[in-house]
Amino acid sequence: MTDELNPTAASGGEDDDRAAADALYRELLDRIGESNPQPRLEPTRRALELLGDPQNSAPVITIAGTNGKTSTSRMIESLLRASGLKPGLLTSPHLVRVNERIMIDGEPISDAALVAGGDDIRPYLLMVDAELTANSEPPLTFFEALTVLAFACFADAPVDVIVLEVGMGGEWDSTNVADAQVAVFCPIDLDHQARLGNTIAEIARTKSGIIKPGASVVTAMQTIEALDEIRARAGQFEAEVAIEMQDFALESTTVAVGGQLLDIRGRAARYEGVFLPLYGDHQAQNAIVAVAAVETFLGDGTRPLDADVLAEGLGQATSPGRLQLVGIEPTVLVDAAHNPHGARALASALQEYFDFDELALVVGILADKDAHGILAELAPVAARFIVTRSSSERAIAADELDETVAELGVPHTVVDDVEDALREARGWAAESPRRAVVVAGSITLVGDVIALADAEDWKQQ
After folding, report:
1. pTM (2 decimals)?
2. For the chain, which domains are there?
C-alpha cells in the first residue's frame, strides 16, 4: 500500500502525523488510567477477536517481574534483531512520547503508523465499550486499548516475534491475552501491594499467570517464596524452568569505559568478554536473563548464540531512563528507581561504576509508592536531596515528600518546579568536576527531565 511505503507524504507531512498521534494519545488518556487497571482479560480478548486475533500473528516472549522488566525486554529485542529477526516490542510506561511503547524493528513506531493503527481499531474498541457498558462494566481502560493497538500494529508491520513487557502483575494483565512461548521472570519483590498482594508469594502467584501450556520458563534469581510459586505454576503445564545460578549465570563483570564486560554461562554455552553499554550489576543480571531467554526461544536452550549476534545484540542495547547519562558539564544521570529494590540497585551502581565525590539527588515520587523506602535506600549516596514534584497527577507534593526526607538527616531543599529544581542541582554540581546530579524516584520525573534537557539543548546524544 502507498500509505505504508510513504506514510508521511500520504498523510500531509510529519507535522500533521505528529498532531494526529498526539490527538490519538489524548483519546486514549480519556479512558481509565494506568493506575487503576481492571483485573480482567475478556474485554481485551473480545476486541482482539473482532480484529482477527492479531496477538496470534507471531510467537511471543512475555516478561514479568518487579524490577528490570523494561531493560530485559529491550535486551531480548536487541538480541533477536541481531539474530536477523524483525521484532515488535511493547513496554511501559513511556518517558516522553507514547510511540516509545510500541517498537518495531528497533525503532519507536512512526506517528503515521500509530495513527493508522488507531483508526483501524477505533470502531472495535467502541463496540466493546458499548458491550461493557450494557453489562454495567467499565469501558476498556487506557492500557487495555493500548495493548489492542500494539497487537494490531505488530500484525500490520508485520513482525517475526512479539516481546511483551507485562504492565502490572501478570495473570490478569491485558498483555496476557497472548500465549507466550517463553515466559521470563525478572526479580520479584514488593510493589503495587494494593493490587497484587501483600506478600512476595501472593505477588509471584499473580505474576506466574503468564506461564501457559507449552511455554518454557526462564527466571532470574528469586526468593524461595517467589520461586515456589513459579515452579508450581510451571508444574501445572509441565513447563521446563531454567533458573539463574542453576541453569545459567553471570560468572564475572568488570567495569569498562561506557559500561561493563561480562563473562556469561548461558544455557547452551559460555560467552566471555561480552560488552554491555549499561551500568550496574543489576543490568548484568538482566543481560544474562535476556541471553537465556533468547537461547530458549531460538534453540530450546541447547543451541549457542553466535558470537557476533551476542556482541551486536548486547553491544547495541539501550535502556532509556535507567541509569542514563543525560547531560555532561555537569554530569546528569537519570534512573526510574520507583521502588526500594530499584533504589537499592541504583545506589549500588553509583558507588561501583562511578567515581564522584558528591551527588545531588533530585527526587520526586508518586503517591502509590513506598517513598520512605526509596529515599532510605538513596540516602547513603546523597550529599543532598532536592525535593520536587513531577508532572504526574499522582506525584506526591514536594512539601509532603520533604517531611519524609527530613527524617533521614540528609541536607535538602524543596523546589516544587522541576525546571527550577534541575537548574539548582546543575548549578551546585557545576561548582566542582567531582560532583554530579542524579534524578530518580519516578519514571514521570525522568521523562520530564529528559524532555527539559532536550528543549534546553544540553541533552547528551
Report:
1. 0.92
2. 2-315 (3.40.1190.10), 324-455 (3.90.190.20)
